[in-house]
Write a structure and sequence with these properties.
By secondary structure, the protein is an alpha/beta fold. It contains seven helices and seven strands, in the order αβαββαββαβααβα. α4 packs parallel to α6.
Length: 221
């Protein structure tokens, strides 16, 4: 099936493909940090018998197609507690890492924790070091809508030396993660690209644009 996909991309002269390798703190590659994905095997953590990322990189490059590893840095569960008792259950090993959203059944890693940001760095570094990927691309790099003050109040008080508002503090946490991952990639293989797929919120307010030293969105006056 993957050969057919790559052949079809070659026919339409596509020059790159984004292959999702980490969707819910799991792996479509041999990881030292997280279990094999249940999207690949019958049960999370089972050995698949081959390495999908290795395969896609090799076959993509045969066809002149760049392979970019697609990662969801924060997403942990799409159904709360779905990994209970299974490998890679951060709720059991690092319960403070998890932000749970009862109304949406989503849970993510807590961006306000330095340990979480470091874990993401390590995961990306391993991929870049062990695989001949041409790029790393992020999705779901943000807090989930509906994050309440109570959910990250402890981290806000503990890790906010700049005394930022909660909104700016959360934005700073995401900015730190993105910056640190970028620096990690460039330190391992400077030629590997790094990008983020969802569009950012446009700086439609000139005052906000000035605050973050970016050009205002055209037509925002």
């Amino acid at each position: 099936e993957m050969i057919a996909i790559l052949d079809s991309l070659k026919r339409i002269r596509a020059n790159s493909v984004s292959f999702q390798v980490r969707s819910r703190c799991d792996a479509m590659y041999k990881s030292s940090y997280e279990p094999w994905s249940s999207d690949l095997v019958a049960q999370r953590g089972m050995e698949p018998g081959y390495d999908p990322l290795e395969f896609v990189v090799a076959e993509g490059h045969k066809r002149g197609i760049e392979v970019h590893a697609w990662i969801n840095p924060y997403r942990f569960e799409s159904v709360n507690y779905q990994w209970s008792g299974l490998p890679g259950d951060y709720r059991a090993t690092n319960p403070d890492w998890i932000l749970t959203y009862p109304n949406t059944t989503n849970s993510i890693l807590n961006p306000g924790l330095p340990a979480v940001r470091l874990q993401i760095q390590k995961i990306v570094a391993e991929i870049v070091k062990n695989y001949d990927v041409d790029g790393i691309i992020f999705d779901d790099y943000f807090y989930v809508s509906g994050t309440t003050d109570a959910m990250d109040d402890a981290q806000y008080k503990l890790y906010n030396p700049d005394k930022l508002s909660r909104g700016d503090w959360r934005r700073q946490n995401v900015n730190k993660m993105v910056r640190d991952v970028r620096d990690t990639i460039k330190s391992v293989k400077p030629w590997v690209k790094f990008g983020i797929s969802p569009a950012g919120v446009a700086a439609s307010d000139p005052n906000v644009a000035k605050k973050y030293d970016v050009p205002p969105c055209p037509g925002s006056d």
